[in-house]
């Protein structure tokens, strides 16, 4: 007599998505009432008059639209990334090589793109982002067997540009008007958390678009997302070419080098900010490399397609907490320290024991909720202490140590098999504890006045 063992694929309950949506909506809808009671003198804070209240509302809406398009492009290629590689006959060893080349390009080329962005202009660099995605889209549409090596290189450079160019462009453009009216920081705070919110929402949207275009036939529709990516890239290039020239005073290389040495390399506070940013970037990269293998460990079956939007929804929820904390007069450094410690503890628990799938997903969601809060908080500190003229170079260089660390552990894990997945997660947790320590040290250097720009 045979024994039949029933198996089931784990998937999150629909109530989870309802909770995330309702909580985000509740936080956004109640914030104006909180602001009117606890901050009656604030005229330019987020939601004071309108969800996009700004002295330059047209640019803010225009910028968020472009940022939404860019985020969709970033997420569209990853919907069927691994399946696409398998479909075209790419082995697991070559997949590891692809990842090494991608992070290598981000380390050796992407780290310098921020410096180039400061010298040639932020808007031009954002335009290059859309052009790179257009090249990849056309390449995959035209070539029957596309060159994944070229596509991988272009997408890695585009991701590097995405990490700094849009933020620096938004800050410079807002400064043209808002700094003259005396509420620069309030407007930028609003833009920062909306960027995180829109990015998370657009990544979910890219998954919907990719699944819709591929349909039920994966083999015939595997190239369909390339069509959507090409159209979105063309739309982005068109929008950026027609509006907001974004012209700013550009320094010579000699002046830029001298200013960078004085205001960035010579300021201990900037080093601490850069270290915290690098640790966060490293932990996020490790998470996205290992989250699926961790869930399916020991042969467990999981519906990853429903867990992915759950994680991004948690990040959206975390971003909506940002304006509450800022207007509650809490110190940015204290909020960052607490968020980093929570993230580190969560990863430490995950590394120690895989646990049940439901518990893991809960921990993953809390981790991403902290990301949604940390990203605008770090951007806020950069606005207070990093000169706009040097912002792109500072951000891109701060990610170089993280990319180098990722290259190292990928090589050890992918080729030599000397590092286990749990060890990689421990490294990410240690990095987050280091980030919390950087924020504590940062508070000790608060006696000096913050600088947001400089004069020649």
Task: Walk me through the structure.
By secondary structure, the protein is mainly α. The chain folds into two domains: 55-250, MFS general substrate transporter like domains (Growth Hormone, Chain: A, Up-down Bundle), CATH 1.20.1250; 251-456, Growth Hormone, Chain: A. Helix content is 77%, strand content 0%. It is built from 18 helices and no strands. The protein has helices at 14-38, 57-76, 81-87, 92-120, 122-142, 148-162, 165-181, 184-214, 218-221, 224-242, 253-265, 268-295, 304-327, 332-352, 357-385, 391-398, 400-416, 421-444. Helix 4 packs antiparallel against helix 16 (391-398) and helix 12 (268-295) packs parallel to helix 17 (400-416). The longest helix has 31 residues, at 184-214. The radius of gyration is 22 Å and the shape is globular. The model is unreliable at 1-6 and 40-55 (pLDDT under 50).
Average pLDDT metric? 84
Q: Under the CATH scheme, which architecture of the largest domain would be assigned?
A: Up-down Bundle
- In angstroms, what separates the terminal alpha carbons? 87 Å
Number of E-state strands: 0
Poorly predicted regions: 1-6, 40-55
Summing up helix and strand content along with how strands pair, one would put the structural category as mainly alpha
What is the CATH superfamily label of the largest domain?
MFS general substrate transporter like domains
- Gyration radius from CA atoms, angstroms: 22 Å
CATH topology of the largest domain: Growth Hormone, Chain: A
Q: Which term fits the overall shape?
A: globular
Beta content comes to under 5%
Looking at the chains present, what oligomeric state does this protein adopt?
single chain
Count of the domains: 2
User: Which bin fits the share of residues in helices?
Assistant: over 70%
Sheet having the most strands:
none
């Amino acid at each position: 007599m045979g024994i039949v063992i029933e198996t089931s694929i784990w998937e999150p309950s629909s109530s989870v998505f309802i909770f995330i949506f309702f909580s985000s909506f509740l936080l956004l809808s109640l914030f104006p009432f909180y602001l009117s009671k606890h901050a009656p003198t604030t005229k330019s804070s987020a939601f004071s008059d309108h969800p996009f209240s700004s002295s330059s509302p047209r640019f803010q809406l225009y910028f968020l639209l472009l940022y939404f398009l860019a985020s969709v492009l970033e997420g569209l290629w990853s919907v069927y990334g691994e399946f696409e590689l398998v479909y075209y006959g790419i082995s697991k060893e070559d997949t590891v090589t692809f990842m090494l080349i991608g992070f290598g390009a981000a380390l050796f080329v992407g780290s310098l793109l921020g410096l180039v962005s400061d010298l040639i202009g932020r808007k031009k660099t954002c335009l290059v982002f859309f052009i790179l995605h257009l090249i990849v889209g056309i390449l995959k549409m035209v070539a029957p067997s596309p060159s994944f090596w070229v596509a991988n290189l272009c997408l890695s450079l585009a991701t590097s540009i995405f990490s700094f160019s849009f933020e620096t462009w938004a800050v410079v453009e807002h400064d043209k008007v808002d700094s003259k009216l005396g509420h620069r920081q309030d407007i930028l705070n609003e833009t920062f958390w909306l960027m995180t919110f829109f990015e998370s929402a657009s990544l979910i949207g890219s998954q919907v678009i990719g699944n819709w275009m591929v349909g039920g036939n994966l083999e015939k529709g595997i190239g369909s997302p390339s069509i959507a990516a090409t159209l979105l890239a063309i739309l982005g290039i068109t929008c950026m070419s027609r509006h907001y020239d974004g012209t700013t005073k550009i320094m010579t290389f000699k002046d830029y080098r001298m200013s960078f040495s004085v205001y960035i390399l010579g300021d201990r506070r900037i080093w601490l900010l850069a270290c915290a940013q690098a640790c966060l970037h490293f932990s996020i990269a490790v998470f996205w490399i290992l989250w699926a293998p961790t869930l399916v460990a020991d042969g467990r079956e999981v519906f990853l397609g429903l867990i992915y939007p759950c994680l991004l929804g948690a990040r959206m929820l975390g971003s909506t907490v940002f304006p509450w904390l800022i207007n509650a007069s809490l110190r940015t450094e204290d909020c960052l320290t607490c968020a980093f410690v929570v993230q580190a503890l969560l990863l430490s628990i995950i590394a120690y024991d895989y646990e049940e799938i439901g518990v893991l997903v809960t921990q993953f969601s809390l981790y991403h909720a902290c990301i949604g809060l940390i990203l605008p908080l770090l951007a806020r500190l950069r606005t207070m202490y990093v000169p706009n003229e040097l912002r792109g170079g500072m951000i891109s260089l701060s990610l170089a140590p993280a990319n180098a660390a990722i290259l190292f552990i990928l090589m050890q894990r992918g080729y030599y098999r000397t590092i286990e997945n749990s060890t990689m997660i421990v490294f990410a947790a240690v990095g987050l504890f280091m980030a919390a320590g950087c924020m504590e040290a940062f508070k000790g250097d608060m006696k000096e006045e913050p600088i947001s720009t400089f004069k020649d």
